[in-house]
Model the fold of this input.
Amino acid sequence: MKKSIFLISLFLLGCSLNEKYTNSEGVVDIDYLFNSPNTEWFKNNYDSYKIDTNTLNNDYSNIYEYEIEIYMNTRCHDSEREVPRMIKILNQLNFSEENLKIILLNSEKKSSDGYEKGKNITNTPTIIFSKNSIEKNRIVEFPYENLEKDILKIINNVEYKHVYYSE
Done:
């Protein structure tokens, strides 16, 4: 009897752990990106990215004043390329995961919980930089120069417009 209870408990624990990594929409964390079967590409792309250390040697201290939201799709080639790079840069800067929100969207750029509503997400990934809950800027689909340079401009309030910007 004890063995049966143990096996059932182990099975239920395994199911709940698998559910954490099988989400295809909604909020996830960095652990999900490294471990989900939906993001098998993540670790390779993360490891292979060479950070622009010349740019990263600049003052990025303002980044800690921001909240960052990443809207992505696990089957989008631009997300596959840019999200691992972004996470690697944020890890290098010791950016707190508490100030990072990663939202998975479906192919229509929507989530069942509506996290994207009011955010004008037209392409993935979209990386939104906010201060005190007010959007300051965003990177849409791919950086204008490279992520390091674009982030530096955004957090230091230097003139920056994402690649799809139009007035």
User: Anything to note?
Assistant: The radius of gyration is 18 Å. The chain has one domain: 24-155. Strands lie at 26-28, 67-72, 100-104, 126-131, 134-140. The first strand starts at residue 26 and ends at 28.
